[in-house]
Amino acid sequence: MILDFPVAWLPSLLVALVGLGIGVAFLSADFRAPTSRALGIAFVAFGCSVGLSLPLGAAAGPVPLAGRWLATADAIALIASLEWVRRVRKTIEAEHLHVGVSNVLLRIGQVAGIAMGVAGVYAPEMRRDEFLGAVHGLESLAQPGFWLFAGPLLVALLTGAVATVLLLRAQPDRTERIRIVAAVIGFPLIVAGLILPVKVGSILMVSGEMIYLVGAMQYLVLQGQRGQFLARFLSPQVEKLVRERGLRHAVQHRSLEITVVCSDLRGFTAFAQAHPSSSVIKTLR
Amino acid sequence: MFAISLHTLVSLIALGMAFAFITADAHSRTSQALAISLGATGVAIFLNVSLIDMAEQVPSWSGWLAIPESIGLIAMLEWLLRVRRTLPAAPGMNTSTGDRILRVGQASAALYSVMSIAAPDLRVEHFVRAATRPDSMGDWQFWLFAAPIEFAALCGFAGIFLLLNRRPDRNERIRLIAMALAVPFFLAGFILPRDLAAVSCVIGEIFLLVGSVRYYVEQGQRGQFMARFLSPDVAKLVGERGLKTAMQENQLEITVVSCDLRGFTPYAAAAPSGEVLRVLRDYYDAVGEVVGAYGATIKDYAGDGILILVGAPIAMTDHAMRGIEMARRIRTACIDRSRGWGPEGSRLGIGIGVASGTVTVGVIGTAALEYTAVGSAVNLASRLCEQAAHAEILVDGRTCELVPSHVLECRAPLRVKGFPEPVALFAAPA
Asked: Which of the residues A63, A111, B50, B354 could staple to A124 if both were Cys, CB 3.0 to 4.6 A apart?
């Protein structure tokens, strides 16, 4: 079999496949949760951007029309990531949160994301030549075109970071903390991977994706374990019904003829009055 | 140069996924096996591509590099064995055949390593570098190594098929199908040219990823569903402090509010049960909303009776005042809504009892757990509730001591079942 698929695109393709995989996994598995929806959209957009940027923009000269619009995928990925932070924050009790501050910050970051997208649509050649994978050394940072994109990106990154720190200061429970910390480590790696040369960049991006994944997986497993524990508050039969037939079946209403048995202890109120309540609990057990 | 990072990426992804499984779910024996399988596959890809496929000089001990590959396969089959153990088998079902098939597959995977160690040069020439030779699949030497691997994979497919045949629940089915889809892509990685092999392996990894994420999300959703049967406070207590703390008994002074509907029993006997359910749901919603707003906990629903704890599981200093205010709001909310409850002319009413005292709270039960509060305040609140007329809130003496004197009006002491002396009685005016 002869392939004319340039080998140089393969690392980006792999990064993109993993991004798409994670995105599709979250969208398909947990579409109803607003946080998973934002995370899924971010990863799918990121996967499209990384996977298509090289093939569409590889040749020198003007970027084809389709390649021009890839910058919107970058912007969507960025905006959706910040949206994810916003939605995670909503799931945490807002008592100690500087809700207003982090909301404004995240909105500013999202506007910066839009600015980056607009710049990319208007100057796709500059995006390709001076930004994506273009940082080979300090001198690459001197190019004005680099900052046209890196500037808004940096703003978005910083606002996201500050909002995340505010989030962690609210002391969310352990499950939430794990996925937030994973995002804090993974996100900068992915962003750094975007601007560094493909060889190093792809490894950074895959590492970032994997760190996200580790955090997300822990979050899901802890939720599941909590569920298994909470299931013990239900009768084993109800738990089994849910496990075997799914949630929808379990909440359906049905009319059944059943027999109800009711029992209580004679003299319990007086007994509970006369004894310390811990010994009453022992009796109940 | 690019190829180096390419297979590094593939093994990085495999190792990352292995790490994700092992850190997230270290206690589950299925996740352990899956993590070992992915980890070994990651190591195998990295070592074999860098030391054999791409190296000028193949080390003489290269046969030993087959071991991680074998471990990857053996652990994959072990995962299936362990999934089998978690699934209930129909009574009288013969499960030993399935187990035996998987064990034979594991032996075959081990055989691959033995072959490789015995004939490392043949493996390098005819198997690892098969993609670079034309017609390599016609060589018997190629099949010397390919056959044990293919056979192990076939055993795996047979195992998956047998499991799916047992009609496991939807969640298990998804991860089994994901594995069945992933394995061919991993197998193709053995024979495809290097770059394509990397893409193929990543696709296999993605299938596993999607399957596992779906599996865990579904588990989590079940958790959230179960949590709905519990007060959010109890669920949160369990989530934050763990099972052990939740199981500990704890003495707290709390206020207990008990409410039920006047005239419910005759109404429930006469009305169609769908109609009764609608009224109950409306009533539970009305009370639940108020209870949530005051940070109180619904201990249980029993027909038209609702028992509410103020100050447990999380202690509150102002539980008595909160309890009174909450009872008032429940009264208003229920009176507003009760226009639609029951037949015209004999609408259902609401009665409320409030009592405070030290209670012991904790989780009890063996088969099914229950968060419970024990103490005379609990009994007294429900007795007072029984005595209350429509729209009346009856309050005990201890609660009255804890709130400012103008809040409540005094009533004549009341004789209550189970209490030797008449109890001091107060009422909260509208």
From this structure: A63
